[in-house]
Amino acid sequence: MLAGVAAKYGKNSNEYGKAGGTLKSERRRSTKKKTPILAPVEESPVKESDSLQMLISALKTEEAPTSTNGNGYKPTLSELQ
Known about the structure:
Blueprint: H1 2-9, H2 14-18, H3 48-61, H4 77-80
């Protein structure tokens, strides 16, 4: 029924509004959102070779992962054999 009223009287008519439609002139228009301007990334004073060395040393100092049986219990070598 609303489509019939819109076809006969138009979407900006009082009849269309009375039939339950939103008048074309009263519809909310979307606003364009501006994209944020990002600050330029500054280079760090650390050289690439220095950062690579720091990464290698960090990897060497990490402990090897230990396996558990699922409840936090770590079996000893004698129990595994």
